[in-house]
Amino acid sequence: MKDYVLFVGCVIPLKYPSIEAAAINVFSKLGSHLEISPGFTCCPEPVMSRLIEEDFALAVSARNLAIAEATGKDLVAVCSGCYETLHAAAERLARDPEALERVKGTIGPLGKGFKATVKVRYYLDVLFEDIGVAAIASKVTRKLGLKLASHPGCHAIGGGTGGTTRPDMLRAIAGTTDADIVDYGLERLCCGWPMMQVDQEAALRERLLVKLEAMKKAGVDAVLTTCPTCLMQFENGMAMLKKSGHDLQFPVFHLLEILSMCMGADPAAMGLELHRTKVKEMAIAKLGGGG
Fold this sequence. Notes:
By secondary structure, the protein is of the alpha/beta class.
């Protein structure tokens, strides 16, 4: 099985280290090694950074790409925003020799020999296309059996290539855990994170709240997302909405966390307590745990 170099971005190590641990465990169970590089920085963030200073944002991406390229392995991002940023940068640098020369000078020694040939992959694509649903199912030893509201996220759907099929990939992979992916009609509506930067009230009212109300009407147990930033927006947003009288609370799981637990990881020892929602409690109730 193929090995990869792992890119976790900023949100995961700062807020949800359980996702990084889950990624390493899941890929290991599936026969792939994820190489960890201590040199990576912010991707940078895909929404505002390119609007503020495009060349600087491109140089930051190029630095990360150069580190990955030196390993000789494909770069796998487990954050949707990181994937979109790095994939876009790699595509730009591969077709724009002038931009490539500019960033090589900016990133210093890392630019020596950098050719922008590294392949940037989204983890969901790797799981579905390189490994396959049948292989994933063969490693699932426990069934979570939850009714889940799927939230693929904008950057997963719109970023890179093949995004329109990722909601179906998510449904198929989650199905290996005996999860029931419940249709609620607003799966592709943004969680509101980008809008939060300019109008917090509108982001919560016009994006997150309407999704949560649809999820409640559909009778789901929890939310399933592919992206740590979407996960953070759901958890923080639900807490903020509660203060204004909208008490719509659901545990929010990242796909890799669910897969890791269903492949044998102890939910009591994954760091799930760092979530703001009752993910750990729900997982232990369903799967048991070490206390």
